[in-house]
Specification:
This protein is an alpha+beta fold. It folds into four domains: about 55 residues, no CATH class; about 110 residues, Jelly Rolls, CATH 2.60.120.260; about 325 residues, no CATH class; about 100 residues, Immunoglobulin-like (Sandwich), CATH 2.60.40. The strands form six sheets. Strands 2, 3, 5, 6 and 8 form a five-stranded antiparallel sheet that branches. A hairpin with a 4-residue loop joins strand 16 and strand 17. Helix 11 packs parallel to helix 24 and helix 12 packs across helix 23. It is globular. The two termini are about 40 Å apart.
């Protein structure tokens, strides 16, 4: 390329970059806080008094506008702001007839944590408050700086990559050898387009898709972000949940990959924006994973791209993303193909590639325990079918053992603390799930057999199993296999094995399988829904489908027809399987982001709560300290909640003796306490759970004093993290080449 052309292209890219940076940074000084309230005050619903209507909002010094969607009938009502010390910051009358007022105010000295309140006059007055918005164009927040800086750096990086690719491609190829092959680059961009096609309902920045478990997982991200901000890492007992009573979801539900959207939240990104970005990234890696695996197995790009199309437009994957919002399974879709690829290589004389097998299972361990259990079941059956080869070939057995040890070692940071909490906290609901003693859900565990032949069915949250279906892609793949006839090559026979091997698990997804038999009930109660086996089944079907389609194009010896046939296949999969779900999600399940209201008591099934604690207890009792099983009067002159801790002073009648406090924190192993009596005595009371599952401790016989309860790592947590660290260090020292290509070059090495 001539120098003059390079200069022109560089100037164009630079000019475009400056323009984009200017546009995205125009709102650097803009601040918006918006929340839906939906509160009606009238004589039937409210008494004459002050009502706080929102949570605390931190405002830096500057000029603001408080806008409300509000209507008022009757006089004597008003609007006020209070600061973090409950002192009234300002008051504004709301005379009768007021509608949607906009009130300017200013924070002059230092940042304030404000809350908004309505002063209701009672009587015949009616105040209807729907929305609150606080805006400013003259303040600069750390979160805004972090967000704009992150986005700007990303855009600069993309512009730099574009410039290098156009002007000095050899630099890109040296850093990323993968792209030095033109077909790889084309495949990469094709996978990007597939991801975009499968994610278009969430690419609108103003909307989110209301999935069944979306609020639960969004709260997990928010809890991780708040906990990281407070200095906890790794996060075990999450802040934010249940008015900061703490929720030990991270003990039992792996959230390694959720740290990414949580960090985005810390950088100033909207919670739902972070959630949607994470969904898009997971979708891309799900498509990339099966493309990578199929390409490695078949050495055929058409087969790999076909498998990627099947995965991108998979009915069950899209149901999982949009309807169920099952983020754990969304992540698991990335790792099932890697597990099968590792097994394929191990059993085809490439035992040195056992790292793929281990990496797949480690990924499941880091994202979803139920998917891990399903992966173990599927793998166990496959190994059982190859038991003779395993016993006769020492290399295979060694590869499998090394994989298991690696997963156990690297995953110790999670499974050791999980076992500790399960053993030491028998009152947690999760123990009933782990023991398989929960009630058998006879109406919502598996899909009707006829669902295997459905094109589309409207989703029902209450009857999920009635709405799950694999889509016509499955039927098309079976048809491809039939059309190949009797003459079948080695690779097609491998596809046949994948298909036949997956059929029993497809059977297990349906009600035709005898799940009602007592021998199978412990399994289905632990995995909750038998149709979850559709994920590994889908992966095997799609790998087989890619192989079949490639073989069909070769069989009929019409290479020129391969591309048109591929396009027809892609259109068929999109419009028969994906489009109905995507369109229905966008039209009927999409909600404006401004309508999103976080609720910290939405704990889904409450699996990680103690049995005796109701979801609404924190809301009703807030920071109340109680005495356990006694009516002795208790005075709490001072209390303060800080991070995963609670400090309070107390006074009891003289001679009360030993009593036990119930502290407003959910009990998980790891809480410690310090009691300082008024005479200066310092004691360390033992922590236990009360009948509700809250933190409980003794006053050690002192009638007055100060108690501080706080959370710290247990010995088991330190041991688990230490084993993980030592395992990682050992891998680095030994320089095991876990991922090796056939030419001896490593694509990944540790």
């Amino acid at each position: 390329m001539r120098k003059s052309i390079k200069i022109i292209i560089s100037a164009l890219i630079f000019s475009f970059l400056i323009a984009v940076l200017f546009v995205i940074n125009r709102d650097l000084y803009h601040f918006t806080y918006e929340t839906q309230i939906q509160r009606l005050f009238n004589s039937e619903l409210a008494e004459k008094q002050d009502y706080i209507v929102n949570g605390p909002v931190t405002l830096k010094p500057g000029k603001y506008f408080l806008s409300l969607k509000l209507t008022v009938e009757g006089n004597g009502n008003g609007l006020f702001l209070i600061d973090g010390d409950d002192q009234e910051f300002f008051y504004e009358d709301l005379p009768s007839g007021t509608k949607d007022p906009s009130i300017p105010f200013e924070i002059k000295t230092s940042a304030k944590q404000v809350r908004i309140g309505i002063r209701y006059d009672g009587g015949e007055s009616v105040v209807n408050l729907e929305w609150i918005t606080i805006t400013s164009d003259h303040v600069l927040y750390r979160e805004s700086i972090a967000k704009h800086l992150t986005v700007s750096l990303l855009i600069i990086l993309l512009a730099s990559c574009l410039a290098l690719r156009l002007l000095w491609p050899e630099v890109i190829w040296k850093v990323f050898p993968f792209f030095s092959i033109p077909e790889n680059e084309l495949s990469f961009w094709f996978l990007i387009l597939l991801t975009a096609a499968a994610c278009w309902p969430i690419l609108d920045g103003k909307l989110y898709i209301h999935g069944d478990d979306m609020f639960f997982h969004a709260t997990r991200i928010r809890g991780l972000a708040d906990s990281l901000r407070a200095g906890y890492f790794p996060v075990r007992d999450q802040l934010y949940w249940l008015h900061n009573y703490g929720y030990g979801v991270s003990f039992f539900y792996p959230d390694v990959f959720l740290y990414f959207p949580a960090i985005l939240v810390l950088l100033g990104f909207n919670l739902l924006t972070s959630y949607n970005i994470f969904l898009v990234i997971c979708s891309f890696f799900s498509v990339f994973s099966i493309w990578f695996v199929c390409e490695r197995i078949t050495k055929n790009r058409l087969a790999a791209l076909t498998s990627a199309v099947f995965m991108a437009f998979s009915a069950y994957r899209l149901i999982t993303v949009y309807y169920r919002a099952a983020i754990g399974e969304v992540q698991a879709t990335i790792f099932y193909p890697v597990i099968f690829y590792g097994l394929y290589e191990i059993f085809h004389n490439h035992e040195e590639k056992w790292g793929f097998f281990a990496f797949g299972f480690l990924g499941l361990l880091c994202c979803h325990m139920i998917s891990l259990a399903i992966g173990i079941i599927v793998t166990a059956l496959l190994l059982l079918l190859h038991i003779k080869k395993i016993l006769s070939d020492r290399r295979i057995a060694v590869a499998l053992i090394k994989s298991v040890l690696l997963v156990i070692g690297l995953g110790s940071f999670f499974w050791i603390p999980m076992l500790e909490q399960s053993i030491t906290n028998p009152q947690l609901n999760i123990n009933q799930v782990l023991s398989g003693t929960v009630l058998f859900n006879a109406t919502n565990y598996a899909i009707p057999v006829q669902n295997l032949f459905l094109r589309f069915k409207t989703w029902s949250m209450m009857l999920q199993s009635e709405s799950v279906y694999p889509g016509w892609s499955f039927l098309l793949i079976v048809l491809f296999g039939v059309l190949l006839g009797r003459k079948r090559g080695k690779m097609v026979k491998s596809a046949d094995f994948m298909l036949v091997f997956s059929l029993p698990f497809l059977w297990m997804c349906t009600r035709a399988f005898p799940w009602r038999w007592s021998i199978f009930r412990p399994l289905v109660t632990r995995i909750q829904f038998a149709y979850r086996f559709l994920l590994p089944v889908s992966v095997l079907f799609f790998l087989a489908g890619g192989i079949y389609f490639s073989a069909l194009t070769k069989k009929y010896k019409k290479k020129t027809a391969a591309v048109p046939a591929f396009v027809v296949l892609m259109i068929f999969c999109f419009f028969t399987t994906a489009y109905p779900i995507l369109n229905e999600s966008y039209l009927h399940r999409s909600v404006e982001k401004r309508m999103f209201v976080m609720q910290d008591n939405r704990v889904s099934g409450g699996e990680y709560m103690p049995k005796g604690l109701d979801n609404d207890y924190p809301d009703k009792n807030a920071d109340t300290v109680r005495l356990v099983e006694t009516d002795i009067p208790l005075s709490i002159p001072f209390h303060k909640r800080q991070k995963l801790g609670f400090t309070f002073s107390y006074e009891l009648p003289k001679g009360s003796g030993e009593v036990h406090f119930s502290v407003p924190l959910i009990h998980y192993t790891g809480f410690q306490a310090v009691l300082t009596a008024d005479d200066g005595t310092v004691l360390y009371p033992k922590i236990k759970a009360d009948d509700r599952g809250l933190v409980s401790l003794s006053n050690e016989g002192f009638d007055s004093g100060t108690v501080s309860v706080f959370y710290q790592k247990t010995i088991c947590q330190w041991i688990g993290e230490g084993i993980t660290l030592l395992t990682f260090i050992a891998i680095v020292i030994w320089k095991r080449r876990l991922f090796t290509s056939e030419d001896g070059k490593t694509c990944f090495s540790l």
